[in-house]
């Protein structure tokens, strides 16, 4: 990965500032957690983000986390992928699609090029996929290595 987490957070903060939003401690921390998650779970739920902020010693309400996330999605800084009955949030700064583990909900980013053929086929069929990897992008469902090897 060419861009470091800190660079991604700074770029996202500049974008939200240009959009007239105050860069509060909560916004900075949320972006930081999203940037950290990229190579790990890829996306986080609002609840997990809230727990992470509390663990940092930030006193924020879950409703604040939801409000900040909604603003980031509105600006195109973050995007959502539904997993089961919950919604996960991830950084949308580089165009990507998603592979989702249906077992545990972990998400890996797929580079746009990896699903170019699927997107082209969808376009030929009259469906335009959003290249930024919005929910209208390509989501591949499967099971991660951990879930495949875990016997319940
Ligand atoms: Zn994503
Ligand atoms: Zn899994």
Compile the SSE list and pairings:
Blueprint: H1 5-18, H2 25-37, E1 44-45, H3 46-55, H4 62-74, E2 78-83, E3 86-91, E4 96-101, E5 107-111, H5 116-124, E6 139-142, H6 145-149
The protein binds zinc ion (ZN) (2 copies).
Question: What tags apply to this protein structure?
Answer:
single chain; 152 residues; alpha+beta; Arc Repressor Mutant, subunit A; three-stranded antiparallel β-sheet; 6 strands; binds zinc ion
Walk me through what this model shows.
The chain is 42% helix and 19% strand. It is of the alpha+beta class. The protein has a single domain (5-149), classed as Arc Repressor Mutant, subunit A (Orthogonal Bundle). The strands form two sheets. A three-stranded antiparallel β-sheet has the order 1-3-2. Helix 1 crosses helix 2 (25-37), helix 2 (25-37) packs across helix 3 (46-55) and helix 3 packs across helix 4 (62-74). It is globular, with a radius of gyration of 16 Å. The protein binds zinc ion (ZN) (2 copies). One zinc ion (ZN) binds at residues 101, 103-104, 106, 143-144, 146-147. The site of one zinc ion (ZN) has 7 residues, from strand 4.
